[in-house]
Specification:
The structure is a single chain. This protein is an alpha/beta fold. Helix content is 32%, strand content 33%. The strands form four sheets. It has a nine-stranded mixed sheet with strand order 5-4-6-9-3-12-13-14-15, with helices on both faces.
Length: 215
């Protein structure tokens, strides 16, 4: 199975070599746990010649200059990286779903990176009426990954459930059935931790000017 490095050897080892093509991977965590930086690093390290990358930016976090910086520090031609990434900036659930489905149907992309997965489907602290659309979107992403060998990776926020006294990825009940690999990201001071929700395997990493790196 082909994979793309996260940028950290320990993180890659936990994921059996990195983020996999043909799978839908979710990276969830609170703000500051490295979710966006991980997607930026994946975009930079996406192997040239494998196909284009479609980056979905729902919160205005995408920064071309950040990809440029990561690429330069890793000895990769930044113009080649930026020229291989197309960006969608939806501001509603409808526009997000329509844009992603159209991108998948075009057959132009070998990688789809979503930052973030569920944010637009929540409003005023409560789940919106768009939960069915969120489920269908995740179903489309999962099917496309499996059927076409596409790498699909999404960042997602977390939400505390007082009934279970647990913290889950935002929209967990509507997305979990379609996600193949779920990674929880945490931060403690200057150290970051990744935990595989399926195997409980763990890896420590850091976030720096070159993106995701080893401690």
């Amino acid at each position: 199975m082909r994979r793309v490095s996260t940028g950290s050897r320990s993180f890659d080892s936990m994921m059996e070599g990195g983020t996999a093509f043909g799978r839908f991977t979710e990276f969830s965590g609170e703000e500051g746990t490295g979710k966006s930086q991980l997607l930026f690093t994946l975009a930079v390290l996406f192997p040239r010649g494998s196909g284009r990358v479609f980056f979905v930016d729902t919160g205005g976090t995408f920064r071309p200059e950040r990809l440029h910086q990561i690429a330069v520090l890793r000895g990769i031609e930044p113009d080649a990286v930026l020229g291989n990434v197309d960006v969608l900036e939806p501001r509603s659930p409808e526009k997000m779903a329509e844009g992603v489905v159209a991108a998948l149907a075009s057959g132009s992309y070998a990688g789809v990176l979503v930052d973030t997965l569920s944010e637009l489907f929540y409003g005023a602290g409560a789940l919106s009426r768009e939960t069915a659309r969120l489920s269908l979107l995740c179903r489309s992403l999962a099917y496309h990954a499996l059927a076409n060998g596409t790498l699909v990776a999404a960042a997602n926020g977390v939400r505390y459930n007082p009934e279970s006294n647990l913290t889950h990825a935002q929209g967990f009940e509507h997305t979990a059935a379609y996600i193949h690999t779920r990674i929880s990201l945490r931060r403690n001071a200057g150290r970051w931790l990744a935990v595989d929700s399926g195997t409980n395997a763990r890896a420590e990493f850091a976030v720096g000017p070159a993106g995701i790196v080893d401690i």
